[in-house]
Please model this.
Amino acid sequence: MNVRDSEHMIAELNSKEPYELTKKLDDADLIIINTCSVREKPVSKLFSEIGVFKKHKKESAKIGVTGCTASHLGKDIIKRAPSVDFVLGARNISKITQVIEQKHAVEIDIDNDDSTYDFSEYRTNTFKSMVNISIGCDKSCTFCIVPATRGDEVSIPSDLIVREITKAVNTGAKEVMLLGQNVNNYGKYFKAEDEQCNFTELLQKISKIDGLERIRFTSPHPLHMGDKFLEEFASNPKICKQIHVPLQSGSTSLLKSMRRGYTKEWFINRCEKIRTLCPEATISTDIIVGFPGETEEDFADTMDVLEKVRFEQLFSFKYSPRPHTAAQNFENQIPNEIAGARLTKLQARHTEILDEVMDAQMDKEHMVYFDELKADGKVSGRSDDGKLFYVQGSEELLGKILNVKVTKVSRGALNGTVSE
Ligand code: 5AD
Ligand code: SF4
Model:
């Protein structure tokens, strides 16, 4: 989400005057720190980074703080770090060209309507495009700060989405990543009355775009994974067979106090449905350990779901209390050592599962979309099910979807050779 927000800001700036990206700090005229606030660590890093930037930047260079931390700290950022020139919330990025003109501008209104705003075009990678289909979130998970920083959920009209993807396809993208906090809740909150379209229908519309070959999306919510949606996921050949199903916890009682809206059984049932409808699909997940009140039994439930679903990819975190969330005030906060030990155990078991999953890939064949030139004469790309591949080759491979046979496996990536 933040990568796409950064692209939008670059596009808007570029539409006003030509900007170039630089890796050298002392070259920059404008430094934008686009922040996350989902856990505490990135927030504390922000202020040390501002200090480094202040010390090494050009005298005249401006510093802006944008994104979710900007949304929830607002003008306090400038109070604490007066070298910051502007603060722009995650819901306000369309205002980037305005705030760079004003000293100490703070734009953080979470009711701001960016939904029908037609951003200018900028892509980090010419071969793939990211497109927001909704902004904000209508849930109130008790651990999560996002509804307070990105505001209410609004779906972007489907014709605008189709137009944006078509534009990207016409300029070289064969793959789109649809973005939203809750993509499969798409269609619940249109601003215009006449715009009815749910997520499954949106996928069907998008797959009609000529020249678009691959559709990815993130993140869906387990609660909204009805059969119709999963059947579309499994049967639509343009939809990549990789799905993120964020578990958070395997314990039904903890899921209740997290306000996730589903049970352990529903979650397992949905993953089994995916495995049945689409055995080739990979499933990734997010898990939080050490949520307030988490007992050994609750944690055992999480381990049990890991055993049953055998996620191909796991993003796991220690619970981090956040402002503007209900859980920060819950009793029974879990000591750091216990949460740390649980995280280690979870990750160690997942590593074993991952090793087995990856070892089984030897000699398998996948269709890989090549999108990046690497050092040492290598080109990288992803298979339909999201695995990262490296092959020996040149820029001629870029933008092509080719059959690749796996010749070497490791935990994070596969090496292979292109077979005609
Ligand atoms: N503490 C730890 N992890 C969190 N996440 C969201 N809020 C918190 C928090 N307070 C995780 C969830 C979410 C992912 C993006 O970040 O697992 O799915
Ligand atoms: Fe946060 Fe829950 Fe919304 Fe995801 S669904 S963004 S975890 S409140």
